[in-house]
Specification:
Elements (H helix, E strand, L loop, with lengths): L1 H29 L9 H19 L3 H9 L8 H20 L7 H16 L5 H27 L12 H20 L3 H11 L2 E2 L2 E2 L3 H30 L4 H20 L6 H16 L6 H31 L1
Antiparallel strand pairs: 1-2
Helix pairs in contact: 1-4, 1-8, 1-9, 1-11, 2-7, 2-9, 3-8, 4-5, 4-12, 5-12, 6-10, 6-11, 7-10, 10-11
């Protein structure tokens, strides 16, 4: 039975990494597609490299540890089965919302699913960690919007009137790389968390990140990007706001700073929420009418649904397996 659960959990980890690429990758790339800067393939390459370099050389795996042990003690007996239920539930919820073109939070879905599966299986749940994650999740788009608003208002990124210059394009590359590093310090580590528990790459409540595992997750993430970037990036990069280079620079810088700060604190946070909030902030800095508010509110409603839906789905799965 243990072997079967391990194999299924590895399969779920693969599916989660591909789903993350389709969902999170589209959100990261979406704000800057169609504006002067690095070519799409270069942007994808930068993102995949940072997924390897971030946790192995720069930031460590604090967020992966929070997901694998902080919320629910998945190292306890039955922990792998709980994570299998959680991963499967999170993927189902995100895919259902993705069919509607909504860039919901896979990190938020996994947090809710781990909590729900733990409750269903009768494992202890660290409520205050859950509360802190939810609080960060609620605050992140607001903070990103405020930061983007004032960055744009203060003209700290002066590209208006010169959006095609080499200087602006080089600046865009640097800001995008910062955003990718922020993702590798935070939401990108959920894939490592699931793989680490699946293959036993944890000890003492910590997740260890072998280089080959980081490379594997990055490769799977890249497959997901190719599958889903067009749909999700269209929603962020065109529907929320008609994005120009000045918007992309501010939005990517703002969301990157917010997500990296949370990652260094070990708090899982989603990039899609921060990017959307930053786009709203930079659009509102020019005129509130620049933002397509109905679309932004529709995306926000997907976030509101994600946590309880994934928690309920996983709790039902956990309780069903427990009582069989």
């Amino acid at each position: 039975m243990a072997t079967v659960v391990t194999v299924l959990l590895v399969c779920a980890a693969v599916a989660l990494a591909v789903t993350a690429g389709a969902n999170d990758g589209g959100s990261i790339l979406g704000a800057g597609l169609g504006v002067p800067g690095p070519r799409p393939l270069v942007r994808i390459a930068i993102l995949l490299v940072t997924l390897v370099v971030g946790p192995t050389l720069l930031f460590g795996t604090a967020v992966a540890t929070t997901l694998s042990h902080g919320l629910v003690p998945l190292h306890d007996p039955g922990g792998r089965l709980v994570l299998l239920e959680a991963s499967s539930s999170a993927i189902v919820v995100v895919l259902v919302l993705a069919r509607a073109g909504l860039p919901t939070s896979l990190t938020l879905a996994l947090v809710g699913a781990i909590t729900g599966a733990g409750l269903g299986a009768g494992l202890p749940v660290h409520v205050w960690i859950l509360v802190s994650i939810v609080a960060y999740g609620v605050g992140a788009p607001v903070v990103a919007a405020v930061v983007a608003y004032w960055l744009a208002r203060l003209r700290l990124v002066a590209v208006a009137g010169g959006e095609s210059t080499d200087r602006a394009r080089h600046l865009h590359t640097a800001v995008f790389a910062l955003q990718c590093l922020a993702y590798s310090a935070n939401g990108g580590q959920k894939m490592l968390a699931v793989f680490a528990v699946a293959i036993g790459a944890t000890s003492g409540g910590l997740v260890h990140d072998p280089l080959w595992l980081a490379v594997l997750t990055a490769a799977l993430f890249g497959v997901g990007i190719l599958l889903g970037v067009r749909r999700i990036s269209t929603r962020l990069g065109r529907d929320v706001l008609a994005v120009h280079l000045r918007h992309a620079l501010v939005a990517e810088a703002s969301s990157g700073l917010v997500v990296m700060a949370a990652g260094l604190a070990g708090v899982p946070l989603t990039m899609s929420q921060s990017v959307t909030g930053a786009l709203v902030g930079v659009g509102a800095s020019e005129s509130p009418t620049r933002v397509r508010w109905p679309v932004a509110l529709t995306i926000a409603s997907a976030w509101v649904v994600t946590l309880p839906a994934s928690m309920g789905c996983a709790a039902l799965a956990g309780a069903t397996v427990r009582w069989l």
